[in-house]
């Protein structure tokens, strides 16, 4: 089935942000398997990310995680990225790997620790100034393991106070994006467990504070596209962390576990005007524990592109008519027709018309890049989880 000119122009503008940590070695708490050719520093991570963009033209920005991507000269890192045809995107803070944060960071009752956590975020904003990044993304590992361990309410109040101070430091177009996650590493309560809490916290800050939706951060069975719709209605959907999961926060390749869910999410994003809306960042948040990392990222952005094309193929008029006629099965069939449309041949043709390889996975494999980095780089770094 040919793709319509409207679909093609939406796809033309599609941009997916890659996480620098996807290129480092990662694993589970049982074992981190090293991969030949793994980057040894942030410069090499960006070089690898640029390969994904080279073969897909879909991934022009790279997100950093601080301190995993700490460098002496962020302006140099920015120039390096730009020389490779990409730019630096979201800056992710990290308050989950320091002993001081064992019982909390931005919510902590100890002012010294809370100060340290706030200062880390202010430093991240300094980095944003140097990298030209728009978004500061905050995910908090804070919570408690046993009922009675923590004062749930006081922690919400302290969180708001901390966020106020961080938000006040933003300038110009800069934004604060607050990510939620229902559990892990805390197992009884988490301070930002759901979209509602994130929304309440960011709404109290102001216009440039938004919610980040990580697709792996919900209880099984959650209707994620409903949350997408609601956040877009409220004008507060700031970004996605895309990945897929079978069980918990698996961080597997987006669209691998449940392509239909990805389709439903992208359909709802489009319904809410989010595919063309620069306020919504489409980021990946994945780890490639056993597969090769660059092809893993190429596969991921292609999965998002394919499901976007299918979501754009939904016949909106037919769907509207069926819904108004209470034609339950007819409406469902309209959606399923689009979902079952194989857009791959049309996308391959379109890629060729733009001077790209029809099959980016094969083109990357044939490029020799993987062999070159495997020979050149020894002792690549962990993504950060085991660091
Ligand atoms: C937490 C999370 C968050 C972190 C990333 C590495 O589970 O999704 O986005 O920054 O993983
Ligand atoms: Mn995430
Ligand atoms: Mn996660």
From TrEMBL:
Enzyme Commission identifier(s): 5.3.1.14
Presence of keyword Disulfide bond: no
Organism superkingdom: Bacteria
GO biological process: L-lyxose metabolic process; rhamnose catabolic process
Listed GO MF terms: L-rhamnose isomerase activity; metal ion binding
Keywords of the record: Isomerase, Manganese, Metal-binding
Family matches, as InterPro entries: L-rhamnose_isomerase, Rhamnose_iso-rel, Xyl_isomerase-like_sf
PANTHER family, per database record: L-RHAMNOSE ISOMERASE
Alphabetical list of NCBIfam families matching this protein: RhaI_grampos (TIGR02635)
Protein name: L-rhamnose isomerase
Species lineage: Bacteria, Bacillati, Actinomycetota, Actinomycetes, Micrococcales
